[in-house]
Write a structure and sequence with these properties.
Elements (H helix, E strand, L loop, with lengths): L1 E7 L2 E8 L4 E4 L1 H9 L4 H14 L24
Antiparallel strand pairs: 1-2, 2-3
Helix pairs in contact: 1-2
Length: 78
């Protein structure tokens, strides 16, 4: 897996590229913070999951929070 930082809306977003599955993984909390300007992105994510489940979305009931490894001083990927 290739770890790095992407810039979105002038914010650093932690990313991981899985070469085997050819998929990007992003820190959802950081993305939510960038999209909503929320000062409590974890609460926003928890509230959003509850709302989506209530509306009948097919989210897994076991959605948890996975820790993404902190990446100190990683290069910005373009």
């Amino acid at each position: 897996m290739k770890k790095g930082i992407k810039i979105f809306e002038e914010r650093k977003v932690r990313t991981i590229w899985d070469e085997e599955s050819e998929e990007w993984y992003f820190s959802i909390i950081v993305v939510i913070e960038a999209l909503t300007d929320s000062d409590r992105p974890r609460k926003y994510w928890n509230d959003l999951k509850k709302k989506l489940l209530k509306e009948g979305s097919e989210l897994s009931e076991k959605i948890g929070q996975l820790k993404m490894v902190k990446l100190p001083a990683m290069p910005v990927l373009n």
